[in-house]
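Thread: S-adenosylmethionine complex, take 2
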Amino acid sequence: MTLRMQETTLNFKDLHEKIAHIIHQSFFGKISSKAITQTILKVSDLYVKDDKGSHWKSKEFQTAYLSHFLPMNILRLIQVLERIKKYDFLNKLHWYELGSGVGALDMALQQSEFEPTQITLSDSSSEAKQLYHKLFGQNHEYAIQNFKNAPQVLSARTLFVFCFSLTECATIPDWIYKKDHVLIVEPALKSKSKRLIKMRQKFIDSGFEVLAPCTHNQKCPMEGGREDWCHDTTSGTPWAELCDYYSYLPFKTHRLGFSYLLVSRGHKNLFTNQIRVIGDPLKEKGKSKIMICQDSEREFAARLKKDGPLGEFSRGELIAELQTTEKKSNEWRLKPFTSSARTQP
Ligand SMILES: C[S@@+](CC[C@H](N)C(=O)[O-])C[C@H]1O[C@@H](n2cnc3c(N)ncnc32)[C@H](O)[C@@H]1O
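Output below.
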């Protein structure tokens, strides 16, 4: 099966075959699709309700992770890498991942335009490392280590990457605020995304510049006790095609959520003067609107019904300029609809 996503082509066929083979070996061929689906749901519940994290020693957990969470995380990470691809300097760095599991980042990197100078994976679980080797061979160095302690690598030349691994940590290790370049990807859960917003401020207070998804270094407009939070989603992913168990699962979504944050000391934000779309279109009486972010204010771009449809806006994308008439409260009123009511960066 080949998946076209933006400009990359991802061949999942090999991965699917290897996953099926590992599951077959683990259970001596005796596991039904129904049993796998139940395990996926059990692990999913665990991730939503519990911070205790991955249970790599359990064959059931391995099965659920390989058949469901791994392909989902690969798709999310492909989207993250797409969002940050403008930052060329990342190619000059050693990417050091903490909490790599079975290598979702490695697979996503292979589909991206990035070519880091070096890639190191790491995890506290030797079972995860063994599964990574079964799936990808000895592709990259894989260290067994607990990320409570900082890896001994040169900070200025290293991008420290956490993909869905800080989520398993009740306390964020303080050493990350002393490094130079950090990329964090978290699930789109409210509690995790809100925690990421707090970390964002701590990075700024520690002398970092925020490079993405934010277009500015000011206070986050979503900070505080608000009900909504900033997160992104994959776009147009035929997720149902990738997951053999999709038809059995109660959650039916074609878009996968995630939150992310790229920060650096010494590198400047390339998206200043642009606007990030941070919500889905909302319909209200007499108008449609979308949440946008360009500074510390929580704002919307809205078009009155009499002025036509809202137009094409998708969560996570950048816009160079909005054609507006006035600002009412926290709403920018968009001019009557024409196909050029906004410009792409
Ligand atoms: C949800 S999995 C994510 C795996 C992978 N990054 C992905 O995107 O699919 C989280 C991983 O973090 C690892 N982990 C959690 N806490 C850790 C710690 N303190 N030190 C090292 N690894 C840790 C777990 O063993 C697990 O493999």
